[in-house]
Amino acid sequence: MLVARVVPFSGRAPEKLLHAIVITRMGEGLGDTGLIGEAGQQRALDAIHELLLAAAPYSPEGVCALGMEAFRRASNGAVLAARIQADTGVPVRILAGREEAALGREGVVRALGVPDPLLLVDIGGGSTELALTDPPWEVSVPLGAVVATEGWLRGDPPGAETMSTLRAATHERLAAAYAEAPRTGAPRLVGVGGTVTTYAAIDLVLDEYDSARVHQHVLSRARVAEITQRLAALPLAERRQVPGLHPARAPVILGGGVLLETAMEVSASQSLTVSEANLLHAYVVEQAEEAVSRQRSAQH
Fold it and tell me: What's the CA gap between 209 and 127, in Å, rounded?
């Protein structure tokens, strides 16, 4: 969740007032059933109620939730969106994959403000988005940390053969997607999403998450591989104890880590800059500017 102060049409990044994350694993089991199960739905509803309470002191002028790959993929995604609005009063906008990638790109550009070409990688639970800034190009691959974990990873800890199989599967999908990107030299790789920020927190050995230290932290490709290898050797109970790794993210971090490794490999990137800013930072600006435009239209 992001609560932010926005100056519409200023071109500036939103001022973050509150950023909070609740890990729900809403899409757990989606690959097997094609549905978001009742337990996952209830966890999502509970999380929204919790986040609304946290946001209340800021008296936000507007509230909206964004639906990602789980909503797109599940046959009951639209039904859940309607249930969320009925239960919490929060409307859910289900984003198309390329729309999600484009918003992520805009959020990063607003936050970093760098002129050089960027390649964004956004690793979520159900999908991974890739987006270039110059020329604009984006794609959404329906393979994220949860999907990779549920689809390929077996054993505790998973063995070398299992990890190798997952690497081959992620490479096939991401390489095919990135092959469609226009070639314009070597763009700077920027990463967003829970896997990326978690890898930064692990690299920084953060006992308590510190967004100021995570934002713009640079991870080398070699260091990403080292962290993945270390985590893959640990059973889940020990993985949950790793500094910088939220215990609730431990079950799916290996799936996300392999996707991160693969994104760096297929883009031939030796390093990645971590961004705390993401599609939420672009979306709050978009909503604020649309509200101002509606007000101006009503006055004429």
Answer: 24
Q: Is the pLDDT of residue 115 over 90?
A: no
Q: Where are the domains of the chain?
A: 2-96, 97-279
Mean pLDDT, rounded, for 249-276: 97
Helices (H), the chain: 30-33, 38-55, 69-73, 77-88, 97-112, 145-152, 160-178, 194-203, 211-214, 221-232, 236-239, 253-266, 279-299
Please tell me the pTM assigned to this model. 0.93
Q: Strand 2-5 vs strand 15-19: parallel, antiparallel, or unpaired? A: antiparallel
Give 207-257 pLDDT, tens digit per residue. Answer: 999 999 999 999 999 999 999 999 999 999 999 999 999 999 999 999 999
97-279 placed in CATH 3.30.420.150: yes
Cis before 157 (ω within 30):
yes
In DSSP terms, 219 is beta-bridged to 272
Question: Residue for token digits 């993401």?
Answer: 278
In degrees, rounded to 5, the angle at the alpha carbon of residue 262 between the alpha carbons of residues 256 and 268 is 140
pLDDT tens-digit map of 160-192: 999 999 999 999 999 999 999 998 788 999 999
Residue 147's pLDDT is: 94
Average pLDDT, the chain: 95
Q: What number of other Cβ atoms are within 10 A of residue 291's Cβ? A: 14
**Nearest one of 19, 17, 100 to 286, comparing CA atoms:** 100
Q: Six-digit token pair at 169?
A: 């599967």
Q: Report helix angle 221-232 to 253-266, nearest 10.
A: 150
2-96: CATH class: alpha beta
Nearest one of 17, 22, 20 to 4, comparing CA atoms: 17
